[in-house]
């Protein structure tokens, strides 16, 4: 499933085409994806101008000029592609195949920009685990999908002090706590493994063990907050991980997977300078955790 950097990369790829464009028509090829499409889905979108394209955790947020918001999730295999109407032109370089089977093109947005230029944005999802839902005007923050989400791991909002407060008293393993969307929004298995390695912290240790007094950070929470922000920023800059089905909005792949330090590297030597350890794998909450037992404590 795409993680936050993949979703942010898609957002940035779609933004030049979608933002400030008018939705001339919407075509849906089936009544549902993971969930049924909202009633009058196409009719409510047609004629509306896209005021902005945002992201919250792993959700794309399409803000419309009347206050309505479209919440989109790509699921396991969903991807967007941009096509010029009538031109069969898709920007970007394709480094390995993505789904082009029209049977999986479930949603198409026909767009027109302020100069009359036309483009299509197509959502393709072979496994149909993605979805698109509405948040009514003024109700986006209170939407059930978004209301309980924690801090965003981008910018300076997530710092050592906040992380210390969020983890204080928690007995769950540190990795499990970081993947709890109510604590930090948008983190998934790959980037939690990578951030914990950068911070030199074991995924096994109790989450609360790195917290300090109320309102105060610790060296460990400062390191971890910085590692989370850095690994997310690096992955966004690289265009995401591009594991399995994932491709960017322009059709090309990201390359952050070429610089993984622990994820998927079981049995290989640790990358940390001065560490002679070997990357191990354990299973936590049904997910593989990759880490170096020699230097992560």
Structure write-up:
Helix 1 (4-18) crosses helix 6 and helix 5 (189-199) crosses helix 6 (219-238). With 297 residues, the chain is an alpha+beta fold. The two termini are 28 Å apart. The strands form 3 sheets. Strands 1-6-7-5 form a 4-stranded antiparallel sheet. Strands 2-3-4-8 form a 4-stranded antiparallel sheet. A two-stranded antiparallel sheet has the order 9-10. It is elongated. Helix content is 22%, strand content 20%.
Largest beta-sheet details:
4 strands, antiparallel
Question: In the CATH hierarchy, what is the architecture of the largest domain at level 2?
Answer: Alpha-Beta Barrel
Distance between the termini: 28 Å
Sheet with the most strands: spatial strand order: 1-6-7-5
Derived structural class: alpha+beta
- The topology string of helices and strands comes to HEHEEEEEEEHHHHEE
| Rough outline | elongated
Q: Flag low-confidence runs.
A: 87-98, 242-246
Task: Please name the CATH topology of the largest domain.
Answer: N-terminal domain of MutM-like DNA repair proteins
List strands and helices in order, with pairings:
Blueprint: H1 4-18, E1 22-28, H2 41-45, E2 50-56, E3 59-64, E4 69-73, E5 79-83, E6 105-112, E7 118-124, E8 131-135, H3 160-167, H4 174-178, H5 189-199, H6 219-238, E9 280-284, E10 287-291
Antiparallel strand pairs: 1-6, 2-3, 3-4, 4-8, 5-7, 6-7, 9-10
Helix pairs in contact: 1-6, 3-6, 5-6
Give a concise summary.
This protein is an alpha+beta fold and about 300 residues long.
List keywords for this structure.
20% strand; alpha+beta; 2 domains; 297 residues; 6 helices; four-stranded antiparallel β-sheet; Helicase, Ruva Protein, domain 3; N-terminal domain of MutM-like DNA repair proteins; single chain
């Amino acid at each position: 499933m795409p993680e936050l950097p993949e979703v942010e990369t898609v957002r940035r790829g779609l933004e030049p085409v979608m933002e400030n464009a008018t939705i001339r028509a919407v075509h849906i090829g089936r009544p549902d994806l993971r969930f049924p499409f909202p009633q009058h889905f196409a009719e409510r979108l047609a004629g509306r101008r896209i005021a902005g394209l945002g992201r919250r955790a792993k959700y794309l947020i399409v803000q419309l000029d009347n206050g309505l918001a479209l919440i989109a999730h790509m699921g396991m295999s969903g991807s967007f592609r941009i096509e010029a109407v009538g031109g069969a032109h898709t920007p970007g370089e394709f480094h390995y195949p993505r789904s082009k089977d029209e049977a999986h093109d479930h949603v198409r947005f026909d767009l027109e920009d302020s100069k009359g230029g036309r483009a299509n944005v197509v959502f393709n999802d072979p496994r149909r685990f993605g979805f698109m839902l509405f948040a009514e005007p003024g109700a986006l923050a209170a939407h059930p999908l978004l209301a309980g989400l924690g801090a965003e791991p981008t910018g300076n909002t997530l710092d050592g002090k906040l992380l210390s407060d969020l983890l204080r008293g928690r007995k769950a393993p540190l990795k499990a706590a970081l993947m709890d969307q109510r604590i930090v929004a948008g983190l998934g298995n790959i980037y939690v493994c990578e951030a914990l390695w950068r911070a030199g912290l074991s995924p096994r240790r109790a989450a609360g063990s790195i917290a300090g007094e109320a309102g105060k950070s610790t060296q460990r929470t400062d390191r971890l907050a910085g590692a989370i922000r850095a690994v997310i920023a690096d992955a966004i800059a690289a265009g995401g991980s591009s594991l399995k089905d994932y491709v960017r909005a322009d059709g090309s792949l990201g390359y952050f997977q070429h610089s993984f330090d622990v994820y998927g590297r079981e049995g290989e030597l640790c990358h940390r300078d001065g560490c002679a350890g070997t990357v191990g794998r354990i299973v936590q909450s049904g997910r593989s955790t990759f880490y170096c037992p020699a230097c992560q404590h």
